[in-house]
């Protein structure tokens, strides 16, 4: 299957990604994709390459999805590996965009690529997206650009982000079992307090006998659950969320941030 080379990007109007089909000089059906300013540019480029286009269609990228930390870590690792292998920066972005299965990440990389091609430094292009690239990331990339060791710095950033993701995964795994136990225990206690104990209370009242203090305490707790059940559930859910939120920063602080080599 033959694929036409990409059209040269230009500053100005935003280029779109087009899927095309056509026939080469031997009459063989070929297809591929190309970035261009319009379908007319795609037709002209294919004809110059000796391909007679039969269908050119703009690719519609889904608006769904979002860029996750895992996507940024994977992209950083890919970019570091490609730069260590001598792949030019813009071509590395093209490869990462083409290989990405996340449309949101592809749009983000396309914006960064356009900024770099228009003359911005890579760190400046990253800094325009602080949600995905924090100050530490941008400062390390800037240091790598100035020192000429961008590939090494990207490799360190990728390692750092991979460690962060691994720790987050361990935290989630460690919290799953106690959280499940708490939820099950809470449900069992709630069912007993809301439905079982009130039935026993009616039975005890029909006897007319004096109940021991522990039984009276349990009945009082059941009455409290029946009256303020929404408050009890709110406290339990809030406690679980607060504990999960507090544990993350404490564990993440143990991972040392990468530093630029001293020169």
What does this structure look like?
The chain has 263 residues and is mostly helical. It is 64% helix and 9% strand. It has helices at residues 39-48, 69-84, 89-99, 103-117, 122-127, 135-147, 150-207, 213-227, 229-252; strands at 16-23, 29-36, 52-58. A three-stranded antiparallel sheet has the order 2-1-3, covered by helices on one side. A hairpin with a 5-residue loop joins strand 1 and strand 2 (29-36). The protein starts with 15 loop residues before the first strand and ends in an 11-residue tail after the last helix. The relative contact order is 0.08. Residues 1-11 and 249-255 have low confidence and may be disordered.
Tell me the total number of β-strands: 3
Low-confidence stretches: 1-11, 249-255
Proportion of residues in β-strands: 5-15%
| Main β-sheet description | 3 strands, antiparallel
Q: How far from one another are the termini?
A: 49 Å
Tell me the helix content.
55-70%
Strand order of the largest sheet: 2-1-3
Secondary structure class reads mainly alpha
What general outline do the C-alpha atoms trace? elongated
Mean pLDDT comes to: 80
Q: How many H/I helical runs?
A: 9
Structural Rg: 30 Å
**How are helices and strands ordered from N to C?**
EEHEHHHHHHHH
């Amino acid at each position: 299957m033959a694929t036409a080379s990409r059209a040269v990007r230009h500053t100005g109007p935003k280029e779109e990604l087009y899927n095309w089909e056509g026939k080469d000089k031997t009459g063989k059906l070929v297809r591929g994709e190309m970035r261009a300013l319009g379908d007319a540019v795609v037709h002209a480029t294919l004809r110059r390459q000796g391909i007679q286009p039969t269908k050119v269609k703009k690719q519609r990228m889904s608006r769904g999805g979002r860029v996750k930390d895992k996507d940024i870590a994977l992209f950083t690792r890919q970019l570091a590996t490609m730069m260590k292998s001598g792949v030019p920066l813009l071509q590395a972005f093209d490869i990462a965009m083409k290989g990405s299965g996340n449309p949101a990440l592809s749009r983000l990389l396309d914006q960064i690529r356009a900024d770099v091609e228009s003359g911005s430094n890579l760190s400046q292009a990253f800094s325009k997206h602080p949600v995905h690239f924090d100050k530490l990331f941008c400062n390390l990339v800037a240091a790598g650009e100035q020192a000429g060791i961008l590939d090494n710095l990207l490799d360190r950033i990728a390692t750092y982000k991979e460690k962060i993701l691994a720790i987050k995964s361990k935290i989630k795994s460690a919290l799953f079992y106690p959280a499940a136990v708490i939820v099950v225990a809470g449900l069992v206690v709630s069912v007993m307090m809301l439905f079982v104990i009130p039935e026993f209370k009616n039975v005890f009242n029909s006897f007319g006998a004096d109940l021991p203090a522990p039984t009276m305490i349990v009945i009082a707790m059941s009455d409290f659950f029946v009256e303020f059940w929404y408050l009890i559930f709110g406290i339990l859910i809030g406690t679980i969320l607060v504990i999960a939120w507090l544990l993350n920063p404490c564990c993440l602080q143990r991972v040392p941030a990468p530093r630029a080599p001293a020169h």
